[in-house]
Amino acid sequence: MGVEGIGASVVRKEDRRFITGRGRYVDDIKVMGMTHAYFVRSPHAHAKITSIDVEAAKAMPGVVDVLTGQQIVDDKVGNLICGWAVHSKDGSAMKMGAWPAMAPETVRFVGQAVAVVIAETRNLARDAAEAVEVHYEELPSAHHIAMAIAPGAPQLHPEAPGNIVYDWSIGEEKAVDEAFAKAANVVTFELVNNRLVPNAMEPRAALAEYNEAEEHFTLHTTSQNPHVARLVLSAFYNIAPEHKLRVVAPDVGGGFGSKIFIYPEEMVALWASKKVRRPVKWTGDRNEAFLTDAHGRDHISKAEMAFDADNKILGLRVKTHANFGAYMSLFSSSVPTYLYATLLSGQYNIPAIYAEVIGVYTNTTPVDAYRGAGRPEACYLLERLMETAARQLKVDPAELRRKNFITSFPHQTPVIMAYDIGDFGASLDAALKAIDYAGFPARREKAKSEGKLRGLGFSCYIEACGIAPSKAVGSLGAGVGLWESAEVRVNPVGTIEVLTGSHSHGQGHETTFAQLVAGRLGIPISQVSIVHGDTDKVQFGMGTYGSRSAAVGMSAIFKAMEKVEKKAKKIAAHQLEASEDDIVIENGEFKVTGTDKSIALPMVALAAYTAHNLPDGMEPGLKEGAFYDPTNFTFPAGSYICEIEVDKGTGKSTIIKFVAVDDFGRLINPMIVDGQVHGGLAQGIGQAILEQAIYDDTGQLVTASFMDYAMPRADDVPSFEISHTTTLCPGNPLGVKGCGEAGAIGASAAVINAITDAIGNNKLDMPATPDRVWHAMQAPLQQAAE
Amino acid sequence: MYEFKYHRPATVRQAANILLKNEDAKLIAGGHTLLPVMKQRLAAPPHLVDLSHVEGLDGIEIKGRSLVIGATAKHADVAASAIVGEAIPALAELASLIGDPAVRHKGTIGGSLANNDPTADYPAAVLALGATIVTNKRKLKPEEFFQGLFTTALEPDEIITKVSFPIPKKAAYIKFRNQASRYALVGVFVAKRPSDVRVTVTGAGSEGVFRVTAFEEALKKRFSPKALDGIHVDADGLNSDLHGSAEYRAHLIGVLAKRAVEAANAKPEKELPEPDPTQPSVG
Amino acid sequence: MTRLSSAQRHLVRFTLNGKPVQGEAEPRLLLTDFLRQTIGATGTHVGCEHGVCGACTITVDGELARACLTLAVQIDGCELRTVEGLAPAPDRLGVLQAAFRRNHALQCGFCTAGILMSLDHYLRAHPKPSEAEIRDLLSGHLCRCTGYTPIVQAALEAAAELAELSRSDHRDV
């Protein structure tokens, strides 16, 4: 049965239900007496609510109730929380403004909920929502970082003077100053990291049911971490105590970070189900997704790098302004700090780093983790800086990188992270070979003769994944531990259920996790079921994000399996009258080494549950649980090279070839790993050439539909060439590092480096739309002048 | 969507009667333009008149020296039609570039023209080829028909029944897509006709489709991309939005026009007699 | 001529994956809501409200249609096919479905139904598609998970297999 164990590209168990239309997503669920919620939302970026009149709406056909923000306050429902306390460099706590689930007094972004209509159908709820009369007194607003930090800018929250949430720093400023003082060359660079909308294809949804007799709530919701949702809903929002609240995240149509957070709509649905004493369903539409799903990225940065005469990096200085939007979302504070600046050493030996990050409130949708979360921003900054340096220093970009690679491990960077292992030269070599680097000049000449501009761009990324060692993140301000849990239940006739705190919303855990268990026991994966996403079934767990499910979630299963196997071996030894130490597990059999004696797993399991003949003192049953808390982050790394062709006439970029070489440690299911890389690359390429959330002068999100927000489509991306180099992660029992975010982290810089190489102008921000590239081509002498 | 009454007439006359009796009634064919707007509650017609069951409105045929396409012919039908491919291959190509396959299987030429979206493709062909828009009441020249953004000469009870395209000697359409919507950021249709050359632009004009007479005159003298060298389109009056500045659009018009001429020249020229001005072009 | 008043519900009869079905719909009810909520066929998904994402793609009388831009009352008397009807038998996957599984052409599964319907429709008429043609077809769909590469692979593999099968006159896509 080894063919279905770790390392095999097993087809997915979960596919059958999806390709036959039998998946079960939140909006697919219908219960008796169900009502539908539709939110009344602010049309203004910043305004005082002077009055809300719901009477006309309440009188509309089919309306069950209309609830407002004041009622949320009156019911003492807690404000939304931010779960990571980040302190400014002066030691002061971050400055948080209150975020009620529906605004009672002030709205601070377009789309913020102010009231909700509960009605018999969605259409009727929407009809009535238009009859809710809300009067606003408009206030001046700030929708961009520069507007928000300008003198005299409109003030969003009284708690945060100047709209500054924190002014944080990491690293040694003095050491960096000294490095720059002795530099032979200094490269400076300014960039914008464009704001993105996650756009998981399934819009968020919630179905809340309240059982009056039991005083019990059930919430089906689109969540990446149902236990965390339950914890937050009960401990902070006071809607229901934990033991009276079941949160279920069934099939979830993609997350990419956006479904980590507990949003106002889900809170309100839960609260409203008790108010109206009927089940309440809310399903967002795409417009609501654009306006209310936490956005990603949105940085403005200035970076300087000091080199010695031999082109070795001496130091790095970075100043970043990060846009948080109007409120601090659940993990937002950690994204541009501990998930960003701690990765600014990249793959390079940088003796001194100093980074400052200023978090800013603006009248926009809240910003939080989106695939990569901080790490794409770090990689993009660093890799554009390296490419700029290579051009300025007139050295080969691959060689400049190689010269500065970290080559001995473990390696302590100046920004917290201690890299455990890696071989950056190996992945760069493999990528250079795959792209045929030596042949590029000839390809460039040929393209030129055909009127096209060809360019090549590199990106050597590193990420911190396997999030995260609890003690370490706790010391940095995290409000939770980031371990994972597992329980392995061997049923009486030998089938197995694994209960995991990880959540699968496309990642294929039902297959990969089963591969681990099946491989260890030598049984088919069909004998193993993975149970996840239901707080009534599964013990407390932390969920899926930060490329953590393999490194942390599977490690917990690994630990539980060790316990199960230990007990099973004892039982087998007892049954076979052999020594426990002589028992080996092969092909589902417990064998006594060197003999032909064996007992099959079902018989061991049955013995455990009949308990007729167990070793003295042994408890019946065969079920073990484990918690796994990682000792360090994991550090997936790799080299991406993009070859691009720019149409001189139109400025349109076409990716000719994209090569990705990743080191993810051990691969559980290479097919699924490749799938994760493919999807991540498309998102990274999307950020580089297509995607951007844009607010107009009045704070309206003008890219609030797929007609204006350009998503990567099949004819925008090439077929990718993916390969792997391997250094096994020493920090976890499986040697895995995680693969979910790499593509989105590494791709953008490679694409932009290629375009700027093609057009000969380094001044270009994402997304490199044809218009922008054409404009950049009109000033091709800029780079030479620098 | 707001509530509305739904009508499914069997004939154009029935449809026109409903329109006449019900102010603000709207026609629906493929629905790919109207329904999204209604779903966003930006349009609230109290009556919807579905043309999809009206027989005989979707024909494609040659009549004399013209290609005649019925109003409810779908983009996919036009794209795949051997008749269109033979008579005006540029029109088939244009239809194949509209939206995506699902859109092309539902969207109709009549619906597209009646909507007169400034970024739609068909208006460029209609104006460049000098097509005649035939309604249940009259025949309209493109210059009369297109009246600015989302505005046409159609009266409230007027229904497009067919469009008659005089066959050009050669023609081509080059579209540069808006990366998000897939509508034309700029689309240029070039037609070499028996008597003249026409160059039309969609996507860029703040008043909808328009002709570039400077290009036309140059191309009439010499139908070659080189003839356009040094002639620039003024950015004034062109659309400028998050997808492209007016300056960029003006530049694209020049680039795409040259490519369209080159594409047209790659096709064999049709032998066509000079038009007889006494003969109406529509059958 | 048919005339349906606004607030009332009207009987809509149609064929869904070969079986006669009926349900009541007011004129403004979208086909997606009708299929999902009234009929209970939830395999067809809604990913956007403006006809771009393609998750709701089905076929109506053999032609591709976006169910989110179709009114329920418009399909009276029509033949509909949805993802639930793709498998030739309950215990057997179609060639295209199997190719999707083999190539890992789906992750979260949300956009998958619409993509399968488009490809199923296309491959019936175009037995030898090129990669560019497949990518053009897929441009009417948004998938946030796969990066499209494996979907293209699956489509090309399915096409090749179908071409092989069609020689033995077998047409389960």
Automatic annotation (TrEMBL), chain A:
A Pfam family recorded for this sequence: MoCoBD_2
GO MF assignments: anaerobic carbon-monoxide dehydrogenase activity; iron ion binding
InterPro entries per record: Ald_Oxase/Xan_DH_a/b (IPR000674), Ald_Oxase/Xan_DH_a/b_sf (IPR036856), Ald_Oxase/xanthine_DH-like (IPR016208), AldOxase/xan_DH_MoCoBD1 (IPR008274), AldOxase/xan_DH_MoCoBD2 (IPR046867), AldOxase/xan_DH_Mopterin-bd_sf (IPR037165)
Keywords: Molybdenum, Oxidoreductase
Cross-referenced SMART domains: Ald_Xan_dh_C
Gene3D superfamilies reported in the protein's UniProt record: Aldehyde oxidase/xanthine dehydrogenase, a/b hammerhead (3.90.1170.50), Aldehyde oxidase/xanthine dehydrogenase, molybdopterin binding domain (3.30.365.10)
Alphabetized PANTHER family for the sequence: ALDEHYDE OXIDASE 1-RELATED, XANTHINE DEHYDROGENASE
Protein's name in the database: Carbon-monoxide dehydrogenase large subunit
Organism, as annotated: Rhodopseudomonas rhenobacensis
UniProtKB/TrEMBL annotation, chain B:
Entry EC number(s): 1.2.7.4
Sorted UniProt keywords: FAD, Flavoprotein, Oxidoreductase
MF (Gene Ontology): anaerobic carbon-monoxide dehydrogenase activity; FAD binding
Keyword check for Flavoprotein: yes
Classification via InterPro entries: CO_DH_flav_C (IPR005107), CO_DH_flav_C_dom_sf (IPR036683), Diverse_Substr_Oxidored (IPR051312), FAD-bd_PCMH (IPR016166), FAD-bd_PCMH-like_sf (IPR036318), FAD-bd_PCMH_sub1 (IPR016167), FAD-bd_PCMH_sub2 (IPR016169), Mopterin_DH_FAD-bd (IPR002346)
KW Flavoprotein (keyword) present: yes
FAD-binding PCMH-type domain span: 1-170
Broad class of enzyme this protein falls into: oxidoreductase
A Pfam family assignment: FAD_binding_5
PANTHER family: XANTHINE DEHYDROGENASE SUBUNIT C-RELATED
Name of protein: Carbon-monoxide dehydrogenase medium subunit
Lineage: Bacteria, Pseudomonadati, Pseudomonadota, Alphaproteobacteria, Hyphomicrobiales
Automatic annotation (TrEMBL), chain C:
Entry keywords, A to Z: 2Fe-2S, Iron, Iron-sulfur, Metal-binding, Oxidoreductase
Signal peptide positions (record): none
Documented EC number(s): 1.3.99.8
Key word Oxidoreductase present: yes
Annotated 2Fe-2S ferredoxin-type domain residues: 10-86
Keyword Transferase annotated: no
A GO molecular-function descriptor: 2-furoyl-CoA dehydrogenase activity
Xref: InterPro entries: 2Fe-2S-bd, 2Fe-2S-bd_dom_sf, 2Fe-2S_ferredoxin-like_sf, 2Fe-2S_ferredoxin-type, 2Fe2S_fd_BS, Beta-grasp_dom_sf, Diverse_Oxidoreductases
PANTHER family according to UniProt: OXIDOREDUCTASE WITH IRON-SULFUR SUBUNIT
Protein name (Swiss-Prot/TrEMBL): 2-furoyl-CoA dehydrogenase 2Fe-2S iron sulfur subunit
